[in-house]
Design brief:
The protein has helices spanning 30-41, 101-115, 153-161, 174-186, 204-214, 226-253; strands at 6-9, 19-23, 45-51, 60-62, 65-67, 70-75, 87-92, 119-126, 134-137, 146-150, 169-172, 190-196. With 265 residues, it is of the alpha/beta class. The relative contact order is 0.17.
Amino acid sequence: MADLPLVKVDDSIDANGAMVVSCFPTVSMVSNIVAHFLVECLDLQFVGGVRDSRLPAVCLVQDGEPLPPIRIYAGEPNCTIEGCDKLIVVLSDIQVHGRLALPLTEALFAWSKEAQISSAILIDAFAHGVESPHELVDDDDTDETLLGIGATESTREKLTEMGVPLLKHGVVGGMTGVMMGEGRRRGIEISAILAEANPAIPDARAAARIIEKLNLLFPAVSLDAGPLIEEAARIEEQIKEMLSRNLSASEERGDDGGTSAMLYG
């Protein structure tokens, strides 16, 4: 195997027994929204990141400070998983494709083993009928769906207790697919929660449904999904206003209005 990416975390961080929430973006930026929400709501601190020459040559700038595109945050909110009183969030602002997915998974698993991580939850999303890294087949093919995958029997039981139905059939790609496959092979306590999302927008409403489930794990801290619902409503209103303006302009010109980009933010 090619050289593994370097996962570098502050030596002062005690991650023994921690739970990891891993967020690599795919459909509708749902995992990013969840990750940023957790970092802000739980006041998690930036403690490290991932380095590799195969990653895009970019950095995130926040309040004038440059940060790596794949970052690690840590904090100590209480959770309901036995032995877990610490939280690690892996937040990626880039999609990890193809050949880098397995080496990055290997590197993250090696770090988590050395740090004695307790368990991990992967956050992801899917959309029906559009190009997506995931091809899911499930009896409950309705709006506002959450689906779960567990690498071990205990993680599948935990998802069921949280009210997350298990995915019956499907193909899951990207980092979620590789990490879940390797997790099963190694017997790691790792699970995934995927929300059905609107592929046309950053779907804060789908992220809110995941937050409501994660809230079951943190009894000492209330993860209020209300702000995400408000953000979803704001985005939807912005889209309606843009569509209305485009339609009005098209009717005045008597043409199809041409093609225009729509920005959300």
